[in-house]
Amino acid sequence: MLRLIIRQANWGILGSVFAFSIGFFVKTYVIREVGTSNWGAYATAHTFSVIADTFLSLGIPLTILKFFPNLMSSNREKASVLIQKILKFSLFISLGFIVSMYFLAPYLDKYVYTNTENFSYLLLLISVHVPISIFMGIITSLYRSVLKIKEIILYGTFVHVPLRTILTFIVFQYSNNIVNFVIIEIFTQTLVLFLLYYFYNKKEMKLISRESKNSFKITNDIIKYGKNIYTNSLVSLLSSQSMAFLLGVMLPSEYMGVYSVLLTVTTLSMFINKNLRTVFAPIISKLYEENKMSKLNEIYKKITFIVNTLTIPFSIILMIFADEIFSWYSPSGELSIYKAFYLLSIIAILSLLRYTLEFTVQYQSH
Question: 0.85 exceeded by the pTM?
Answer without folding.
Answer: no
